[in-house]
Amino acid sequence: MKLAVIGFTRSGCTYAKRIEKAMREKGNDCTAWGKGSKAEDWEVCPVKEPLKDWTGEQFLTQDALIFVGATGIAVRAIAPFVKSKSTDPAVLCMDEQGRYVISLLSGHLGGANELATEIARLCQATPVITTATDLNGRFSVDSFAKREHLYLDSLSLAKKISAEILEHGKVGLHSDFEITGPVPQELSIKDEGDLGISISLNQGCNPFFETLHLVPRILVLGIGCKKGASREQIESLVRKVMDDKGFSMYGIGKVASIDLKREEEGLVSFCREYGFSFHTYSRQELEAVSCEDGFSESEFVKNVTGVGNVCERSALRASGQTRLLQKKVAENGVTIAVALEDYQVQF
Predict the structure, then answer these.
(1) What's the CA angle centered on 79, arms 76 and 85, to 5 degrees?
(2) Is 339 helix (H, G, I), strand (E, B) or coil?
């Protein structure tokens, strides 16, 4: 997680440094900043440009912004850059005496509510959470999607579901995956009704008249390709495989290949375009992988890479599985196999 914390007084910057230290100890990328003529004396990174310019840059690059100062300063600073709850970073405001931590923007999807609670605990402050589902102790579908790393396909339907829940109604729940733990009382497991949630890799699964799709990012693509294969060639085959299986592109969590392809431009560009994490493995690591149904081996591929199958072995290595969801498919010098990470729905 990437965070920027900014203070406007000596006291505010003291809290900013405290937050920076704690976040870094947890493995986050966090920087404490200060705005003011004496910022350099406060042992933080001085903000020399106008606050609006600094905020605009941080809004694009950070997962969370924390203003240690007046709420009005924070609101005016972020106002020109607020676009959508699906893309805006979490924004928090903390008073310079460390008494209150306010979740100001992107409380659920951005994680501001959770972060406000964490920082309040750190600074022995009071978290201020104003989202209705949290205040009423009700199930929040967008918070659930954030926590479970699920793609949520309709903010308007998520809002409608929250409104129904707040009026003490129930919404339907369909899941293609095993559910562990008690199901929230606001949800009813069924496959029909006016309004409901579908947890599936298939965005075409519509058990309800109005269906909110939550897609787990648990598909692992193993990809092999000839040298110089373009991003378009790779994307074309990926989309064909996903369509044939009825899988959403949003269900892809990882892409894997052999380390010889670590800098293959078409493959790297494809992963960058969609934000997929890209993992590569050595010949020895891929050779150690086993498959319950055996591999589709190629002597030509083995002569080139040292291993008889790149895509299937890569998919299994990255997923930690021994069975493929889709064996090798080849087209235009590109090969793709698909594996599925273990997943259970946890409420």
Answers:
(1) 140
(2) strand
Nearest to 91 by CA among 80, 102, 76: 102
Can you tell me the distance from the alpha carbon of 128 to that of 126, in angstroms, rounded to the nearest whole number? 6
Give the number of C-alpha atoms closer than 13 A to the C-alpha of residue 186, restricted to the C-beta side: 20
Rounded Cα distance between 24 and 250, Å, is 30
Phi, psi of 131 (to 5 degrees): -70, 140
What six digits make up the tokens of 230?
């373009």
Type of residue numbered 299: E
Question: Which 3-state string (H, E, C) describes 46-86?
Answer: ECCCCHHHHHHHHHHHCCEEEEECCHHHHHHHHHHHCCCCC
The full set of domains in the chain, from first to last, is 2-130 (3.40.50.11220), 143-216 (3.40.1390.40), 219-340 (3.30.420.180)
Helix (H, G, I), strand (E, B) or coil at 39: helix
How much of the chain is in helix, strand and coil states, percent to nearest 5? 35, 25, 35
Q: Which residues are CB-neighbours of 6 under 8 A, at least 6 positions away?
A: 16, 32, 33, 34, 35, 47, 54, 65, 66, 67, 68, 69
Q: How far is CA 174 from CA 140, 188, 202, in A?
A: 16, 9, 12
Q: Report yes or no: 16 and 33 within 8 Å, Cβ to Cβ.
A: yes
Q: What is the pLDDT of residues 106-144, one digit of tens each?
A: 888 788 888 999 999 989 999 998 877 676 678 889 889
Residue 242 burial (CB count, 10 A): 21
pLDDT in tens, 294-347: 888 877 777 777 787 999 999 999 999 999 999 999 999 999 999 999 999 998
First to last CA, the chain: 23
